[in-house]
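ingest -> validate -> predict -> emit
validate: passed (alphabet ok, no gaps, 412 aa)
predict: started
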Amino acid sequence: MCGRYALGIRATFVRHQFQEHGMPVEDAPEDDDVRQTYNFAPGNRGLVYRADVPDWGAGGNRHGPRENDEATEEEEYSAVIEDPKETRYKLQAMKWGLVPFWTKRNPDYGSVMKTINARDDSLAQSGGMWNTMKQKKRCIVVAQGFYEWLKKNGGKEKIPHFTKRKDGQLMCFAGLWDCVQYEGSEEKHYTYTIITTDSNKQLSFLHDRMPVILENGSDALRTWLDPKHSEWSKELQSLLRPFDGDLECYPVSKEVGKVGNNSPTFIVPVASTENKNNIANFFSHAKKEASGKEVEKETKEEEMELSQKGSNLERNQQEQHGTVDQCGAEDNAPLPGPMAGSKRAHDIDAGTDDVSQVKAIKLDDADAAAVLTDSAEKKTGKKSRSATSNGTKGSPAKSGNGSQRITDFFNK
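emit:
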């Protein structure tokens, strides 16, 4: 059976595609009148292509509640067509799940589900509920492709598969339509069903049934829709056979199993790199993202390392930069001097014996400082100022007991 298909396109797009294949469309519904979804389920309003004939179908014989009513001018115009070339065709929004014209009350959902498909072998029999529709109300149901579930582990596991034409063209399912008015209502309800047949060899692994698919713009499709064929025949029955064209069938997301879900990814293979729901693609993208972040991290670390090296080099240069004592207002203020290669003593005067003696003899820091000071005094003729002494001899006299009362201090 066919219980779910994809129709995520607009009616205006379908109209353009049909006209490109020599299938005229005189009239079409508004885009909003048709349910655009990649998870089309029974009860939704789909897109049907049919001959523009009265509600009772092709031919001059009426049926149903309107049997004694007079036909409208438009219906009389469409009812009898002498020249097939003058037949007008249209796209129409209808509800999936055929409700026969003789139905008096709106059926429940369970009843509608029984008429979403019509078997080709049931149409071969004379009579039956499809008898009027197969003769006078044939149509094409437009789809992008259909879903079927592969059963595994004794039916415990079901894997959805999507089937579409390999050439990317729209699928044209053979179907039947009808129009009903319930008792006490003037509203017309248009509904349809999809005809199924045996699966071809390509889909036999998936299910034993598949929709009847007619080639776009083919003679078979025109014959199926031709209102002049108002009686069921072997020619019409022969059109209901497995599709012999090239199809693509592949597993898709299990989320399509819930009717309320809808996503363009439902018709994309699970294994495809374009499918964001594929767990393998998820980890692949995550790996690429992590790799990119790692490269970025390494780049930042290299930049920090280069920056640190630059800072260390600048610091070393500053440490190697010497100082020289100069005379001036600030007698002992050290000023920047020329760069030198020694670590401790710098040549104040490259020719002085004192500095040579300082380099030759290992002295401690205090003695080395004294030698350098004496040398500077000899050159400048001015005595250096001590940082801890103001030049006075001796220390100030201390009080006898080493302390004084604060009151005695203020009494002086």
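The longest strand covers residues 171-180.
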